Structures are given as C-alpha cells and as structure tokens.
C-alpha cells in the first residue's frame, strides 16, 4: 500500500475514533466515511451499513448512502424478516451462515443478477460490482451472533472495484464497525430500557438516576387497570391462548395511554400501572387526556374475544386518581425497580378494586374530579365509599351513561 494511502487511512481511522467516542449518529458516521473515501478516489456508487438494534419490533436499521444523495435511514422490522425481498437476498445467506469473509459479486454476470433480484436492481441502476461483509460483535472475547453490522458497497466503475479500492475498504471496515458499535450499543441500551421500564424512566436511568433511593416527589395522575375474570380464564384455557389474549389486551391498553401522553411504568399480572405527569400541562387538560386514555383502553379491550367463548368479550376495570407520588428507584442494592410509591398509589389500587362491586368499568377519585374541569359533563358521583387502609370515606365518580351526557 502506498504511503499516501496509508496516511489517508490513518486520518480516516482517527476521525472514526473521534465520532465513536462522541457516539455520533450512524448516519453521520456513514456520510463522512463515504465522502472521505470518494475524496480518496474510491468509485463508490452506493454504501449501506445495517446494524442490529435488539428492539422489540425492529430487527435492524439501515443507513444507505448514495452518491450525490446523502444518507437515508430506515428501520427493518421483524416482520420483514419473512418478506420475499429478504428471503431472496444474498445478505440473508451471509447472516444465517455467520460468514464474516468479504463477498465480492460481479453484477455484470447474468448468473448473479438472475439468482438475486436485488442484484438486478443494482445493475439496472448502473452498478458493476457488489461487496458485502458481515462484522459480528461479541462478548467476553467471543462473537454472540446477536449483534453486529452488515456492510455493503457498490461501484459503477467499468470493471468493478480495483484491488486498491478493496484493500482500503477491508482495512477501514472494522474501524467503521467499531465506531458504529459505540453508537449502536447506546441505542440498544435505550431500546431495552424503554421496552422494560418505559420511555421517560429509561431516559432518567441513562441520565444517572440509577442509585437506590434516587426519588423525587411529583404530582401526577395515576391509572391502574385490571382485567375482569382473568384468573378464572387462565385456569380454564391453555397457556398459549392465555399468553396470546393477554398480549392483545396489553396492546389495547398501552396504545391509548401512550397516545394521550401517559407512561406505563409496569405490568401488574393482568393489569398495569401508568402515570400521567404534568410536565407543564394544565391539570384540566391532563385529566381529560387520562380519562380519554382509560375510556379508549376499556373500549378496545371490550372488542377482544375471550378464548373459547365466541360470544363473550374481555372486560377491563380502570381507576384514575390524582395525587403526589414518589418517582424513582427502590429495591435491593443491586436489583432495582423504577416505579412510583406512596399513599396515592395505594388509594388508586383500592378504588380500582371497587369497579366490579359498583358496576362501573372506570372509577375516579374526588381529587381527580376536582381538577377535571374539562370532564365535568362526563362524570357522575357514585357516593362515598370506604377504601381499605384509608381512614376516611372517599367520594368516587363514574362515567355518566352515554344518553345522559
């Protein structure tokens, strides 16, 4: 390799280290990397770095650079793993075989374009050669196969990539992969934390609120839900059916909570605990959002069929309460739970337990009703009731029948 190329490779390597330490977005890394290679004389036509994300819905994210068009980022969902495009892709063979050797394909060879439809697309766009390399990440000095990056490159140069081009790419691809890994690892941490503790709590944890006893007091609306008759159902039908219907019900609950600005903190057996934090919102508006979320969750669950009972639907109870809660970490020294605590949470739970007895799927506390000015026409008092563990009786509210609103 010429001295000039060696110096250029070192400069690019140093820049990749810098971008990795800064955890620059992958699309930024890809843009700079490709521009520097073009300036070095490599006839790049297209480049793609796809990184595994360990996201519940997204398998990987592709960052595609095209000459003169910049970088386009797009997610590859888990559902796409069974699409004809992926099943007929040469990349699938590399991933499934975990083959980390550089794969060169002559796109002017009809046998290649006939075998792989995506190669025919590249050839139609003017490409003459395709390079692919799988770079696997690992743990404790060994690859795991769970994470890594797939890199592909095409050129439209007559005769394909020169040996110099390939040598430079082979030298730099592991460095690019390491830089990308720095950003991807953080993204994986975000994805996993969001999946298990929620969007806001994950941000708090990554920002440093990970020590036991790290709490703050916040005023918030508490939403607690519970599926009616689920224990009986779970004892009657097989585990697969129970799991399937429970996941359907949670989808039905979580979507409206998320859409109306709430955050699910945890799943409680066949129910959940969610919070609607102020964060600058007017209390009246926040109450309306929380009530709409509860109403939509109840309605959505009510559309789900109970396994083995074609004419019977699932039912959901929900309670809304406004109060101050402790928001933060509790648990053992090395096993923590990010949650909300306090009398207000216990009171919300006690209110929810009265839904079935009072015959209302949604019950609201007095403190919620006092602030829910935008919901006044929707609520009706159902009297004062004694809550277990609460000294004084509490006036509760339910939704008015639709004809009375």
Structural write-up:
This protein has helices at 3-21, 26-39, 84-87, 90-97, 110-115, 117-124, 163-197, 199-206, 230-236, 239-259, 283-301, 343-352, 355-358, 366-371, and strands at residues 44-52, 58-66, 70-77, 103-106, 129-139, 142-155, 215-227, 263-268, 271-277, 305-306, 309-313, 316-332, 335-341, 362-364, 379-385, 394-399. The protein is α+β, with helices and mostly antiparallel strands. The chain has two domains: 3-197, Transcription factor LuxR-like, autoinducer-binding domain (Beta-Lactamase, 2-Layer Sandwich); 207-404, Nucleotide cyclase, GGDEF domain (Alpha-Beta Plaits, 2-Layer Sandwich). A hairpin with a 3-residue loop joins β2 (58-66) and β3 (70-77). It is elongated, with a radius of gyration of 28 Å. The model has no long low-confidence stretch (mean pLDDT 88).
Layout of strands and helices, then pairs:
Blueprint: H1 3-21, H2 26-39, E1 44-52, E2 58-66, E3 70-77, H3 84-87, H4 90-97, E4 103-106, H5 110-115, H6 117-124, E5 129-139, E6 142-155, H7 163-197, H8 199-206, E7 215-227, H9 230-236, H10 239-259, E8 263-268, E9 271-277, H11 283-301, E10 305-306, E11 309-313, E12 316-332, E13 335-341, H12 343-352, H13 355-358, E14 362-364, H14 366-371, E15 379-385, E16 394-399
Parallel strand pairs: 12-14
Antiparallel strand pairs: 1-2, 1-6, 2-3, 4-5, 5-6, 7-9, 7-12, 8-9, 10-11, 12-13, 14-16, 15-16
Helix pairs in contact: 1-7, 2-7, 7-8, 10-11
If helices are DSSP runs of H or I spanning 4 or more residues, what is the number of helices? 14
Q: If you compute it from the alpha carbons, what radius of gyration comes out, rounded to the nearest whole angstrom? A: 28 Å
Largest sheet: 8 strands, mixed
CATH architecture heading of the largest domain: 2-Layer Sandwich
């Amino acid at each position: 390799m010429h001295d000039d190329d060696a110096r250029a490779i070192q400069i690019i390597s140093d820049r990749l280290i810098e971008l990795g330490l800064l955890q620059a977005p992958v699309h930024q890394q890809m843009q700079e990397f490709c521009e520097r290679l073009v300036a070095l004389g490599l006839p790049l036509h297209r480049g793609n770095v796809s990184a595994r994300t360990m996201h519940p819905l997204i398998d990987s994210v592709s960052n595609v650079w095209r000459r003169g068009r910049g970088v386009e980022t797009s997610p590859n969902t888990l559902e796409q793993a069974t699409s004809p495009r992926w099943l007929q892709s040469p990349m699938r063979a590399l991933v499934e075989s975990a083959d980390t050797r550089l794969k060169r394909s002559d796109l002017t060879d009809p046998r290649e374009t006939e075998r792989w439809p995506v190669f025919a697309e590249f050839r139609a766009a003017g490409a003459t050669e395709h390079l692919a390399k799988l770079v696997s990440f690992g743990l404790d000095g060994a690859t795991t196969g769970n994470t890594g990056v797939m890199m592909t490159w095409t050129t439209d140069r007559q005769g394909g990539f020169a040996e110099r081009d390939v040598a430079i790419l082979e030298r730099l691809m592991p460095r690019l992969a390491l830089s990308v890994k720095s950003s991807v690892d953080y993204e994986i941490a975000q994805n996993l934390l969001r999946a298990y503790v929620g969007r806001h709590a994950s941000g708090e944890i990554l920002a440093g609120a990970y020590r036991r006893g790290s709490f703050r007091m916040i005023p918030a609306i508490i939403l607690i839900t519970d599926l009616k008759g689920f224990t009986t159902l779970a004892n009657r039908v097989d585990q697969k059916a129970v799991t399937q219907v429970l996941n359907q019900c949670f989808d039905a609950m979580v979507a409206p909570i998320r859409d109306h600005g709430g955050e699910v903190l945890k799943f409680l057996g066949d129910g959940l605990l969610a919070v609607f934090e102020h964060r600058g919102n007017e209390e009246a508006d926040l109450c309306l959002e929380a009530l709409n979320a509860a109403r939509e969750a109840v309605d959505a669950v009510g559309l789900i069929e109970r396994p083995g009972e074609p004419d019977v639907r699932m039912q959901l109870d929900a309670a809304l309460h406004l109060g101050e809660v402790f928001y933060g970490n509790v648990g053992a020294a090395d096993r923590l739970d990010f949650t909300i605590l306090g009398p207000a949470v216990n009171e919300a739970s006690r209110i929810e337990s009265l839904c079935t007895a009072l015959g209302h799927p949604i019950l609201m506390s007095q403190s919620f009703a006092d602030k829910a000015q935008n919901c006044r026409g929707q609520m009706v008092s159902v009297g004062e009731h004694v809550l277990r563990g609460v000294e004084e009786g509490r006036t509760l509210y339910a939704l008015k029948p639709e004809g009375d609103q």
